[in-house]
Amino acid sequence: MKTVKHKILVLSGKGGVGKSTFSAHLAHGLAEDENTQVALLDIDICGPSIPKIMGLEGEQVHQSGSGWSPVFVEDNLGVMSVGFLLSSPDDAVIWRGPKKNGMIKQFLRDVDWGEVDYLIVDTPPGTSDEHLSAVQYLSAARLDGAVIITTPQEVSLQDVRKEINFCHKVKVPIIGVVENMSVFVCPKCKKESQIFPPTTGGAEVMCQDLKIPLLGKVPLDPHIGKSCDKGQSFLMDAPASAAALAYRRIIQRIQEFCGHHQPKEEHLVGS
Amino acid sequence: MEEVPQGCPGTGSAQAGRGASCQGCPNQRLCASGAGAAPDPAIEEIKEKMKTVKHKILVLSGKGGVGKSTFSAHLAHGLAEDENTQVALLDIDICGPSIPKIMGLEGEQVHQSGSGWSPVFVEDNLGVMSVGFLLSSPDDAVIWRGPKKNGMIKQFLRDVDWGEVDYLIVDTPPGTSDEHLSAVQYLSAARLDGAVIITTPQEVSLQDVRKEINFCHKVKVPIIGVVENMSVFVCPKCKKESQIFPPTTGGAEVMCQDLKIPLLGKVPLDPHIGIQEFCGHHQPKEEHLVGS
């Protein structure tokens, strides 16, 4: 990991809140600067979504003398996932914890990432083997921190508080929380609907209570799902949308946390 | 943290306890004696326990956040509306146990008696068990590796005194790993009726759901059918239908046709589902079903 400057974990206690979607777009956003080398590692062994979301289905991993080669989306954006090791995307990976841990160790040790500015590690939901292994194996390599994803409803926040609790216990700094699926704006009448109602105040109140930064809120936008299914960057597909702008603000805050500033004024809207 | 030596041949392997990687493992002697390959006695114990349980249904999904727990809870409520039907709901999501909140049972504790652990009763005919009831605070993270989670699931199946039950519904976390293998393994002698698989319409979900279907085939669990949640959102103001999670590859309908699996139904997005979950109430399922 000496050739990797910044390492960011993307976590959530809850499934389906948009971790992989966020990880992919964080990677895309950072890699828009062609001088920034970005690596995206998917350690969701059972449900590896990153190959599809990055438009890399069917790609295979190659081995060389210096280790496994990641699959490159762009010259400066490499990806690794167990999805690249399956003969078919429908193959179930039915492994217990120890075998999953072994795979994660291999990903971290044997992939030849090269010189990388940002390594983003996408995780499955929960606080179990994959998360413990990632933290354990990266413990000597200095993780910058974790970005925690949630949706507004209390059923999600409950699991997310556990994830925050996990970070404290294993001493991983928390960069902040992202609230996905905040609100849906009807394309016809523009009425705002809270489909996942923030009955206890959403991420905003939780972050105030726990004194953790809220990095931003991203609205529900059907184009996000479409872009993910097509394997394209939503930031490119709908650059002026509220969701894309929200993502960009969040990405900038993460870069600032990592101590790297990039002027992105042309994308900023007052928050 | 529990560690298994890298290169562990597996407790059932002929090399168990004998391989080079077994050196230094605390279980080496056990495996070498052949005891590791013997079936877990808990399987027979659970078979006995399950004799008073008529039907056992697993609720699965490869994908997280598609509404497994929401569905499990409402299936339980729906079945229990007939007061002559005894229903049990078991939550084996150890890291993210949502069932206590969804059932309005936060803060409840589990009691032990001579006949085992008592489930927490929502109604006289609806009992619930979850690791959530064993935590001192709902924010406590359960940071366990696979073997410890498996032990908890074994206890839930073996030691909970469910009594005479018509339907046992088992809510699971997303994935195809320890919890799922353990549930199927421990219930293997007790005849699982089958699995209901939950999805949302977009391909990123369906991809994981096909893996779950693949899992069911591999471990020989019959598939009752697929439920597609979050199908469509109807704007309360102008009634426009929006597909928030677009079925770019035809949604569950096309997947089920391809795989020759029943599509049990499609459920639209409705913010009231989230609000009522918070309140721990329920609504009869029929109002939420849209013709599929």
UniProtKB/TrEMBL annotation, chain A:
Organism of this sequence: Enhydra lutris kenyoni
Gene Ontology annotations of biological process type: iron-sulfur cluster assembly
Protein name (record): Cytosolic Fe-S cluster assembly factor NUBP1 isoform X4
Lineage: Eukaryota, Metazoa, Chordata, Craniata, Vertebrata
SUPFAM superfamilies noted in UniProt: P-loop containing nucleoside triphosphate hydrolases
Alphabetized Pfam families for the sequence: ParA
Cross-referenced InterPro entries: Mrp-like_CS, Mrp/NBP35_ATP-bd, P-loop_NTPase, YlxH/NBP35
One Gene Ontology cellular component annotation held by this UniProt entry: nucleus
HAMAP family: Mrp_NBP35
UniProtKB/TrEMBL annotation, chain B:
Compartments (UniProt record): Cytoplasm; Nucleus
Binding site for [4Fe-4S] cluster 1: 8, 22, 25, 31
Gene3D superfamilies xrefs: P-loop containing nucleotide triphosphate hydrolases
Positions that bind [4Fe-4S] cluster 2: 235, 238
Record bears the keyword Iron: yes
Binding site for ATP: 62-69
PROSITE patterns with a match to the protein in the record: MRP (PS01215)
GO biological process assignments: iron-sulfur cluster assembly
Free-text comment on the cofactor: Binds 4 [4Fe-4S] clusters per heterotetramer. Contains two stable clusters in the N-termini of NUBP1 and two labile, bridging clusters between subunits of the NUBP1-NUBP2 heterotetramer.
Keywords noted in UniProt: 4Fe-4S, ATP-binding, Cytoplasm, Iron, Iron-sulfur, Metal-binding, Nucleotide-binding
Cofactor: [4Fe-4S] cluster
One term of GO molecular function: 4 iron, 4 sulfur cluster binding
Entry annotated with the keyword ATP-binding: yes
GO cellular component, one term: nucleus
Function: Component of the cytosolic iron-sulfur (Fe/S) protein assembly (CIA) machinery. Required for maturation of extramitochondrial Fe-S proteins. The NUBP1-NUBP2 heterotetramer forms a Fe-S scaffold complex, mediating the de novo assembly of an Fe-S cluster and its transfer to target apoproteins. Implicated in the regulation of centrosome duplication. Negatively regulates cilium formation and structure.
Subunit details: Heterotetramer of 2 NUBP1 and 2 NUBP2 chains. Interacts with KIFC1.
Family that this chain belongs to: Belongs to the Mrp/NBP35 ATP-binding proteins family. NUBP1/NBP35 subfamily.
PANTHER family tied to this protein: CYTOSOLIC FE-S CLUSTER ASSEMBLY FACTOR NUBP1, NUCLEOTIDE-BINDING PROTEIN NBP35 YEAST -RELATED
Record's protein name: Cytosolic Fe-S cluster assembly factor NUBP1
Organism name: Enhydra lutris kenyoni
